[in-house]
Amino acid sequence: MEEKATKAEPKEKKTHDKQEAVIDIKHLKKSFGSKDVLKDINLVVHRGENVVVLGRSGQGKSVTIQCIVGMLIPDAGTLKVFGEEVADLSEKELKELRMKIGFLFQSGALYDSMTVRENLEFPLTRVLKIKDQAEIDKRVEEVLDGVGLAEAIDKMPSDLSGGMRKRAGLARTLIIKPEIMLYDEPTTGLDPITSREISELILNMQKKYKTTSIIITHDMECARITADRVVIMDDGEYIEEGTFDSLQKSKNKIVQSFFKDIS
Fold it and tell me: Where are the alpha helices (DSSP H) in the chain?
């Protein structure tokens, strides 16, 4: 049976020194053929902050985070991570940067032929090159316990529910102790109760590991639970940003459309 995530405590008001910018994006543009997907993206994410990018499907929300990890090269603008321009990094430098970034895909991206334990051991042995089995076991057990999956350690991904697969994917991402977490639609395909549990888990893991996070979603409940700050995306641009509560009072009709069913 899938264990429930520990209920997240209310978010505390955070203050962020402008010198602590971990991700700094200015006038970012990206087109695919004749389609302008990112038209003029500007965003600064501070250390320890959870920023939710909220928008409808097909708006290009995920393209920005693919640029952050160097999977896509922007057409114009600047994108700095830890003060370094990503597009200027060598292959070696890009690999080193990616070791500091955790990326949770919609599917959880588990290897179906491996048990949960083996899925978590893989980045420890292949990425971090850890050889001490006792250290590997300790890390695997600790992170699985943190996401409520201790009893699933020897199960195959096919034996897990959708929510458990998300937890296992999150555990595999967190096991290398990234400084930045990038979530791409983390609650897609989940029922409302499981979606809420995953959202609360994201918040709890951010507190525990002190990560800086960008959460791409169109799930309003996920945004409400996880966000220190919400950025609204429409037609390739960020049109407004603020706290979840402040955006509920926005006069912008596009922003209002996201909150119309929120009580």
Answer: 61-68, 91-98, 116-126, 133-146, 162-174, 192-209, 220-226, 244-247, 253-259
